[in-house]
Amino acid sequence: MFPSSFAYHRPASVEEAVALIGANPDAKVLAGGHSLIPAMKLRLAMPEALIDLNRIDALRGISVNGEVTIGAMTTYAQLLDDAGLGGRFTVIHDAADHVGDVQVRARGTLGGSIAHADPASDFTAVILALGARVTAIGPEGERTIEADDLFVDLFTTALRPDELLTRITIPAVAGTVVTAYAKHAHPASGYPVVGIAAMLTMEGSTVSAARIAVTGATSKATRLTAAETALTGQAADAAVIDRAAAAAEGLEINGDAYASEEYRRHLVSVLTGRVIRQAIARAT
Amino acid sequence: MTERGDGVEGMPDPVTKQLTTLRVNGETHTVAAEPHHTLLEVLREELGLTGTKHGCELGECGACTVLVDGVPLLSCLTLPAQVRGMEVTTVEGLADGPRLHPLQTAFAEEGAAQCGYCTPGMLMAAKALLDANPQPTLEDMQQAIAGNLCRCTGYTAIYEAIAKAASGGGAGAQPLRRTGAGRASASHT
Amino acid sequence: MPRVVRTRVELEGRMTDELALVEGKDLPGWTGERTIVGTPTTRIDGAQRVTGRARYTQDITLPGMLHVRFVRSQHARARVVRVDDTRARELRGVRAVLHRSNLPKAPFRGEETIFREEARFVGEEVAAVCAESEETAAAAIRLVDVEYEVLPHVVDLEDAISEQAPRLDEKGNVSESGSHSRGDTERALRDADVVVDATYRTSTQLHNSLETHGAVAHWDGERLTVWESTQHVFGVREGLHLALGLPYSRIRVICEFMGGGFGSKGGAGKYTIAAALFARQLGAPVRCVYTREEENLAAGNRSATLQHIRVGWTGGRTGRISGLEHISYSNSGQGRWVADPTGPTNTLYKIADLSTKSYRVVTNAGSLSAFRAPGYVEGTFALESALDELAEQVRVDPLELRRRHATSIDPLMALRYTQKRLLDCYRIGAKEIGWSRRKRGGTPGSAEHRRRGMGMASQIWFGGGGPPAFATVHLNPDGTAVIRSGTQDIGTGTRTILAQICAEELGIGVTDVRVDIGDTDAPYGPISAGSLTLASVGPAVRQAAADAREQLLGAAAGVLEVGKRELRVEGGRIVGTSRQTTIEEIFDQLKNYTVIGRGSRFPNPSETALNTFGSHFVQLEVDVRTGEVFLEKIVAVHDIGRVVNPLTAASQVEGGIIQAIGFALTEQRVLDRATGRVLNADLEEYKVPTVRDVPPIVVRFVDVPDRRANNLGARGLGEPPIIPTAAAVANAIANATGARVRTTPMTPDRVMAAFAASRA
Fold first, then answer.
1. Burial, C562: exposed, middle or buried (Cβ in 10 Å; 0-12, 13-18, 19+)?
2. Which residues in chain B are contacts of C49 at CB distance < 8 A?
3. Does one domain contain both C666 and C750?
4. Is B166 near chain C, with CB under 8 Å?
5. Fewer CB in 10 Å around end: N or C, chain A?
């Protein structure tokens, strides 16, 4: 099984990469390659050129300094190994631990996954829940995009074709903040059939703010605003959590050969309840 | 960096082989290979290292796992150009001359290789584990080989082999008995 | 002197009367303790498998080798009107294209050629391209223009049964493939106090051997040599002989190592024939290896089934089964045969009034091929589920219900079994799992939303083996031996167990035995399927080793000038006289001389039934909110007679169980009814279990030699461990939750649906 032939470019800097992207409109950017190379072998993608970002060191790394900045080419393995991502960033470890297997985590990147915007990606929901923003660079320079504005549709983001995603920033939030991720994985692919990420701000036993997002069940990662509303300002007792979980159902949900729309809808609700309980348990 | 041939869509280009320098199993090779072929094909077809296997070619089965700078990667999704200057290790590079690596000995002794087709990839994933974590727990072992499919053994013997290699494989080895009774064999009645 | 005997031969339950060639007299069974046979023995080819040196068909590279790819039908049913290969042939590197209109006559599985006029499933071969590289061949198939006349199709089993379905066969889509009746089942069911009436469904399972199907053919002008990943080198040779019209002596088939087959690699495939035709036509070596997708479209599968069972009970808690009816339909796709799911029903229990019928249903889907205990896996799921449903209704412990219906006589043929120790399996298994802790209605699980349960099921299979099988043992002047037989090691450890048998009989060490198999230039060996390799080939190897030993002792007696009867071989030495001698020293007197012992497999005893038995016990948890099933422990106990190698035997059981877990919980081919396309012909969507899906497995054997079976006292083990697991899982789910899942795989949504049904 072979991809069609392509020119291979390996820029050493972000600037060089941006220039190459500008000069090769039919090129694809190569990050971990675990989605792109199979797509090329299956001839679902036939790029004229590949622009390999793997040797741009500036795109890798994690810095924790109030807010957290993660380079787009940071791998899942690096996320898992970073001891600084504890506390309210535990959701990142939760999700990275759920991604694929050792081989995939060694190569797959956070930026690649977000820019690809697979409707069944773990991290799209995670960055939505964390209220992150991404930074992109293009011919006109840098700009930032809020995660809430990033995912447009299936495999479609607000990034422009000539832009390169460079980093993900998770802003600092005051107060007691807890996070969690729960997932029902496809038994074969490991992708989330339903994945729910949550970030809750706690004042005692009261949830003062909630960001909850779903992936896998919808055509793009989506905030569960009804569940957030049901939770916000409430003492998180069993009845409130059950109400929030029930509120999560009101979405347009996809069905497929593995899981029907009805079953997925059910899972969204069950996992929302579980992820809230798991997050709250981390506050104590 | 490379030129694209003038092939018709979907057809192989007539002039596509490029010279690439690869470090494989401690030796430097300069090979002529199509740049759009993956490391798996280059290892097997250009270097004759057929120990690394084709299983699915889409990154699902782990049969093509090799180490690149010690990290287990899927060679079917890796381009040769991506590993230039890096050290590639295949199953052929595991033994030290005629001396088998402890993992190889343990896999052979515990019957962890049944048909043996997944074994090279499994061994490389296990080596990466033990190099990073010489005393793995059961959970660590599960994590390490969860991306490698085996259709024959039922995995139990593979665990036991990794555990045996980890503990040195000698008399002090702690065979992994996952239940009180373990993977016991014949019981006479 | 070789002589011919008439005997009944069994393969996967299908009996035929055949002539078999035997020589001399069969050996009596071993008595007393064995030192090599029965001892856990490391695989003699382990080093090759762990170093990457083991050479599989996919690793064969020959100078100037060409590559074949198939053009496959994109339609579920279509007449091939015209194939235009002009554009493909113009592509640089393409050497030849074969299709219906230019193909030489090549009879294959009852058809005149390998390309049919009507393509009858998505993925059926329509043309083949041979090119200088695989990449060129892959590109060229996109340039072969095929004109199709699309015809109405049906792919789903239940759709195909209905009156509205397009008729794919003149006689209709449904044909009876087997039936059995004893007593008066209708009356028994009518008079029963309780009747369970249930419908079960099993899904199509794909083999997914890690090494896909493939062959490399080389024609040197006189002789065709084919390397093939196969379970039967002689079967491949026969297929090539029929298709190419070459005499047997001019065909050699080799299978050194192979990456799994599980029943699907039983003979020559279209890839074999195409590679051989191109090789002969172009005078170059030709390789044809399937991609994973091709493997999952065109290399066979386990049939989906629809099964109805009615089973009655009379007499309260001390009662008995009164009447059992089992009607089964199997989706054979385009297969020409069908496996029989009612086999276990006919034989597993003592039931006086019983009626079974099985039907083959043709559809526009890929053909079935044997898949590890074909029919028995599907049928046991239905039978053993139904018996538990009955046990639950009449409040009898499921294990007690089975014990109450035990039989030492095969109820189908009314013949006594050579040996049946199923009750021992129950006893050992119940103790290992802690069956006495099982509670009706299950127990609380490890979390609030989890329930725990226990279930079990029994199995019956064949595995007695039989003739024809031959081997030679060549005793070298240095005291080492070589076994030659045209059997093959499909991953089960054949080389190792044959070496053990030879070493045991000959009196030398296992490491002094080399095993040359997987080659039609060796004496005939049977297909490695039906759990028969050990029981067929092993006794022949023992015969050959004994023959070699007798010749050696004769030579030693002459050299040492003593009576042959005084001598024996032990640990590679000739002992029995005051003068201990090595084999090497004897040969030193005889120059560079090799002793060749010959052995053949004798027929099984007549007027007995020869089967394997076992039972599996499962403990699991169910998440009652999501329907997910978490296996906690599986206990497998089997009666296979003598266990030759406990190490490889345990591997076989563990491996069988893992495939069974896939069948039970995750594996199913998904077909789009509108187009007939397989939606998960890959490993991204089709779930093969990983290490994460494996619970602790306890393997036990009754391990009592079956002295009536053959000169080893051993029966086969390939199939048994895949048979009872799915039913045991279903029974444990029902025990845990009260919900009965009657369809495999028991996916979370099906478990949820069963919860809903049990509440209704």
1. middle
2. 107-108, 113, 116, 119
3. yes
4. no
5. C
Domain count, chain C: 3
The B residues from 61 to 120 touching A (CB cutoff 8 Å) are 62, 65, 71-74, 77-79, 81-82
- Residues of chain C in contact with residue B93, where contact means CB-CB under 8 angstroms, are none
In terms of CATH, what superfamily is A176-281?
A: CO dehydrogenase flavoprotein, C-terminal domain (3.30.390.50)
What value does the mean pLDDT take over residues C383-390? 98
Please judge whether A258 and C685 are an interchain contact, meaning their C-beta atoms are less than 8 angstroms apart. yes
Chain segment A203-212, per-residue pLDDT in tens: 999 999 999 9
Domain edge (last residue) among C600, C625, C643: C600
Q: Does B13 touch chain C (CB under 8 A)?
A: no
Q: What are the C-alpha distances in Å from C465 to residues C8, C363, C473, C569?
A: 11, 33, 21, 29
Residues C404 and C334 placed together within one structural domain of the fold: yes
What is the per-residue pLDDT for B169? 58
> Minimal Cα–Cα distance from C194 to chain B, Å?
38
Cβ-based burial of C716 (10 A; exposed 0-12, middle 13-18, buried ≥19): buried
- Asked if residue B113 and residue B51 are part of one domain, the reply reads no
- Residues written for chain C: 760
Nearest to C698 among B34, B149, B179 (CB): B179
Residue C643's closest chain B neighbor by CA?
B186
Does one domain contain both C488 and C624? no
CA distance B159 to B183: 11
Restricting to B residues 37-76, those with a Cβ less than 8 Å away from any Cβ of C are: 37, 44-45, 48-58, 60-61, 63
Q: Do C89 and C17 have their domain in common?
A: no
pTM check: above 0.90: yes
Q: Which domain holds residue B76?
A: 18-93
Of C291, C40, C324, C307, the C-alpha closest to C141 is C291
Please tell me the CATH code under which domain A60-170 is placed.
3.30.465.10
Among C657, C644, C658, CA closest to C724: C657
Does residue B7 fall inside a structural domain? no
How close B12 comes to chain C (CA, Å)?
6
Average pLDDT over residues C584-606: 92
Q: What is the pLDDT of residue C15?
A: 85
**What pLDDT does residue B11 have?**
53
Q: Indicate yes or no: CB of C701 within 8 angstroms of CB of B113.
A: no
